[in-house]
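ugh ok fine here u go
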Amino acid sequence: MPIIEIEHLTKDYGHNRGIFDVTFSVEKGEVYGFLGPNGAGKTSTIRHIMGFSRPQKGRTLVHGLNSWERASDIQRDLGYLPGEIALPESLTGTEFIKMMADLRGISDMTHTQALMKKFELDASGSLKRMSLGMKRKLAIVTAFMHDPAVLVLDEPTSGLDPIMQTLFIEFIKEEKKKGKTILISSHIFSEIDATCDKISIIKDGRLISSFVANDLRHNEIKTFKIEFKTEESFSRFGVEVKTKQHIEVLSLTPHKLQTTIQINDADINHFISFIADYDVKFFSEIKFTLEDYFMKFYDRNSKATGGAVADAVHRN
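structure:
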């Protein structure tokens, strides 16, 4: 049974703003990436998961409980990290941590102190004068302080310096090993790619692709760049490659004697045998990254469907 379920979620704010027929689920022990630029609908979706907003159509469930109807029950055992940090400015960081501990019934502060040490959080200062990075660390500590089994993280590393971003990614990997169920909303490719088992891409409030991360990492379609030693080899390749149906030529660059080709992994031995007859200066694979896929797919027209394209990775 999925821990987090989003079913045909729709909230139309007008002027093509909102979220439209969004459907995906997060299984127990899974880290799920929700990827898209600012304004794509990530935070709106998360607000519905948290029960902060009521859907016009569809529903969201956490542990089988309706988010709108059972928000307080859901939030009791869930860790939430908002994208925009709004803290009571009259308190110090230490006072805020104590307030959150009291609300959650935490008396043993050992875990909280360990989190503060890990993220180098100095909570003694006033929240009003605290830097954005320190506020983000404070929000991370309070989201994880009760050691929740389910976490909903909206742009979690926003405002953190590169060292802390790397530390946070390693921390998420550790939490994943403990069996935590985690939804991460982000526009940072490295963050999603390093941590997530499954990924959904959202554009203009609509899911345009959902896929297993390893399908992208181990994409069966390979891209190679080749440079030939002589013009004769380059020219001959340009003619003879047309007879090879399993090789797709993406580019031919005569002045550099280079070509970029694409081939299915299953046909790689046939390709090696073919290219062995040419004088080749170098031959290297161009890795297909999450960012490459995102940029390629994000340029497409997503208006035609509100549902995710499950096998989009294999079609690229």
